[in-house]
Each structure stands twice: as C-alpha cells, then as structure tokens.
C-alpha cells in the first residue's frame, strides 16, 4: 500500500508521537484522528480525555463534537466538566494536550477567536473553549494543522492559546511552568521549537514535499533544522487502521450504521 494523501501522512506522523503511557487531552478533528489511531495501533493503553468529561474513552468512530454520545458510551467514566478542568487538567495529571488552530505564528501561539480586528472581524471563529487552559496546563502540547499561508501567519490576530509568547519570550514570563508546544504536525512537515529562540523550525519533511513548497505556504521566513530528516512513509498497518476508522466514521455520520451499532450494543 504505497499511495497515501498528505493528510494521512500528517495524521500518522502525529499519532507516532504518542506513547502508551500518555494521558492525552484530545481536541476534535485532526487531533482526535491522530489520538485514536495511536490507540488502535502502538498505544492501546493510552488514556484519552475529551473536554466533556469523558475519561479513558475508546470510540469506535471519530466524534463530531465533545458532546458526541460515542465518547460517553465508550468511556471508563464521565466526570463533571468542572472536575475535569480543576482536578485533572489544572491538577497536572495530563501529559499531552492535542490541539488544532485557525492561525498559528512561528512561536506556536494559536488563534481560534477572530480573523481581523476583534471588534469588527472578517471572520468570527468558534473561540477558545477549553483550549487556553489545555495549552497552559498540560505537560506539553502537540498541534496539527494544514499548512497554508492564511493559517501560518507572521502575527496572529488574537492570542487564544499561549504558545511560547508573542515574541518567543517564553511561557515563564506569564507564570507557566509547563513545556508548551513541542511539535507541530502539518501535511508537509514536522516542526519543533528552537531551544533558545522558541521559534519553530522544520525538522522533518514528508515524502514528496520540497523545501520550496514549505516556504511558499508559510507567512514568515522558514527556518530549517541543521539536519532535516525525511518523515518515514506510512506503513500498511497504519494506513489500513486509519482508513477503516475514517470509513466507519463516515458511515455512522451518514446514518448507515446507527442501527447496526445499536443492535450490537444491545446484544
């Protein structure tokens, strides 16, 4: 199985970063796909937590939102949202936070609030939800995002979730002791922050992607690490599991499998 899409490479690369012992706060969309792929392959004991309070959830299909019944039905337990944030998140019990973004800058700061002026925005986005607290309190943050200039901008329009500070001055300035964004996974490359400047640099390029293509899709001068690797291509197992997961998800959300899933659980 040699054919794969850029989105599949991004999801699989992100999934590989997760460990079996991780406790992971999962965002909806690409982060959820990566986390569940890890659970279904190399990290079967990973603990997945969603913002609605579901702990140890093992969804058979990807949820549409944090309120998707699939999460509660397959969780070890469900706790109140207040307990989730105060005891689990702010209590330092979550090792990984997995987030998406609408805009990101070279220091890993995230905008999911507005595009344009805050009072008269071009686009008003869904907002932060729990992302600001996730970015502040999880041990470290992983980010997945399609690489296009409208998302990779020199200066984001609003700092919803703190990365390494507006100018890379560091999280310590804001009283945070957690690691912050440690890796960024796109459909073209893997990025990591420089230890001194905190600016993200390309450390691995996905198969078939050129440096010029990366530079053309980012709104700032791209930095490349001294030794840039090539991302290992997806394995047959990774592709099969991911595609099966996506196929089940599509079928359920189209209503084709709801009755069969219900009958299976009732049986």
Structural overview:
The protein is an alpha/beta fold and 267 residues long. It has one domain (6-187, 235-266): Glutaconate Coenzyme A-transferase. It has helices spanning 6-16, 30-40, 69-73, 81-89, 131-137, 211-216, 236-253, 258-266; strands at 23-26, 47-49, 54-55, 77-78, 96-99, 103-104, 110-111, 114-116, 121-124, 140-144, 181-185, 189-193, 200-205, 224-230. The strands form four sheets. An eight-stranded mixed sheet has the order 2-1-5-10-11-12-13-14, with helices on both faces. α1 crosses α2 (30-40). The mean pLDDT is 92.
CATH architecture: 3-Layer(aba) Sandwich
Number of helices: 8
Widest sheet: strand ordering: 2-1-5-10-11-12-13-14
Counting structural domains, the number is: 1
Residue share in helix: 25-40%
User: What's the CATH topology name?
Assistant: Glutaconate Coenzyme A-transferase
Rounded to an integer in angstroms, the radius of gyration calculated over CA atoms is 18 Å
Structural class: alpha/beta
CATH superfamily: Glutaconate Coenzyme A-transferase
How would you state the average pLDDT, rounded?
A: 92
The count of strands amounts to: 14
């Amino acid at each position: 199985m040699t054919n794969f899409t850029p989105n599949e490479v991004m999801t699989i690369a992100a999934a590989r970063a997760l460990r079996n012992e991780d406790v992971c706060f999962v965002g909806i969309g690409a982060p959820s796909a990566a986390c569940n792929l890890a659970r279904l392959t190399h990290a079967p004991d990973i603990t997945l937590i969603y913002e609605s309070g579901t702990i140890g959830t093992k969804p058979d299909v990807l949820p549409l939102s944090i309120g998707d019944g699939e999460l509660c039905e397959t969780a070890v337990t469900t706790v109140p949202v207040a307990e989730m944030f105060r005891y689990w998140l702010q209590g330092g019990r979550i090792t990984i936070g997995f987030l998406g973004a609408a805009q990101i800058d070279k220091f890993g700061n995230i905008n999911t609030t507005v595009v344009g002026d805050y009072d008269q925005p071009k686009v008003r986005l869904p907002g932060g939800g729990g992302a600001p607290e996730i970015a502040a309190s999880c041990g470290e943050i992983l980010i997945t995002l399609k690489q296009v200039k409208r998302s990779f901008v020199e200066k984001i329009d609003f700092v919803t979730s703190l990365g390494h500070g507006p100018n890379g001055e560091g999280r310590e300035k804001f009283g945070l002791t957690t690691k912050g964004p440690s890796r960024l996974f796109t459909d073209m490359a893997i990025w990591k922050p420089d230890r001194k400047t905190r600016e993200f640099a390309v450390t691995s390029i996905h198969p078939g992607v050129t440096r010029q293509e990366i530079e053309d899709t980012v709104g700032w001068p791209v930095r490349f690490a001294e030794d840039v690797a090539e991302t290992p291509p997806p394995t047959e197992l990774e592709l099969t599991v991911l595609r099966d997961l996506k196929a089940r998800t599509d079928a359920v959300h189209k209503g084709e499998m709801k009755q069969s899933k219900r009958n299976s659980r009732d049986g």
